[in-house]
């Protein structure tokens, strides 16, 4: 997690926003608290305020000294208030870290547990885009939410949701609907997984999904081909996967790279 899965989305989002990567420990720690399920409300509130404060500081710095980044571009357009800029920056910062990091780690774990599928991916780079869609379907890391509130009474599947009532949708269950994906419990990198809803659906579907796809399409095959002897360093049963996490993923994923621990030469 610390060596590979988290640094990738952290570096990418810092570059996009023009935020200092040196301060990653500070905002990563608070972002984890914002999403933790067992975090007391006051601690979650304090963590949210901390991240907002960090972004507000960045917005102020960019106003004085704009750079080649998204926040500076938004400031140049001069249509958003400081509060809007801060909220947008906050949404982008927190939404892409745990999600993408966990997908990289859980995707690696799933591939190591399915050596036949891993071999397919290693043998055929053209399979990568489809493999990422199938991993998104199979793993569906967002376990809590999306949450929607009915604006008027609505009937879905014989159940009436009354105006004002909120519901939470299970992306994982939808992604394992046998009518849409035959043998849904099987990880099959060659199946057409288009239409999976691991990034949500409708107007609020993930804003960063194309960026996340690019990160996954580079990170997963990159790791697996650069380290042909990549293996779990502990039995799979010892990988801790917290059940109640809203963004599912391993706490740690210890691996061995090869006997010497150094990468093989690649082109
Ligand atoms: C594999 C990685 C990712 C997964 C699984 C994921 C998943 C999701 C899901 C399921 C939603 C919909 C929530 C809802 O409908 O209420 C969402 C929304 C969002 N995501 Fe992602 N996401 C990922 C990466 C990213 C990245 C890299 C960014 C930005 C850099 C990002 C930014 C956002 C934002 C801003 C929203 C809110 C969109 C809105 O409410 O209109 N996400 N994401």
Describe the protein:
With about 270 residues, the chain is mainly alpha-helical. About 50% of the residues lie in helices and about 5% in strands. The protein has a domain at about 1-95. The mean pLDDT is about 90. Bound molecules: protoporphyrin IX containing FE (HEM). Protoporphyrin IX containing FE binds near residues 91 and 205.
Strand and helix map with partners:
Elements: H1 7-17, H2 24-35, H3 41-64, H4 70-77, H5 82-95, H6 97-113, H7 115-123, H8 128-139, E1 147-149, E2 154-156, E3 159-161, E4 166-168, H9 171-174, H10 209-226, E5 231-232, E6 255-256
Antiparallel strand pairs: 1-4, 2-3, 5-6
The structure holds protoporphyrin IX containing FE.
Describe this protein with a few key phrases.
mainly alpha, two-stranded antiparallel sheet, two-stranded antiparallel ribbon, single chain, 6% strand, binds protoporphyrin IX containing FE, 267 residues
- Mean pLDDT comes to 92
Structural classification? mainly alpha
Helix content: 40-55%
Q: What small-molecule ligands were found?
A: protoporphyrin IX containing FE
**How far is the N terminus from the C terminus?**
26 Å
Q: Unreliable segments (pLDDT under 50, ≥5 consecutive)?
A: none
Shape: globular
- For the CA atoms, what is the radius of gyration? 20 Å
Major β-sheet annotation: 2 strands, antiparallel
- Sequence of secondary-structure elements: HHHHHHHHEEEEHHEE
How many individual helices? 10
Spatially, the strands of the biggest sheet line up as 1-4
Count of DSSP E strands?
A: 6
**Strand content range:** 5-15%
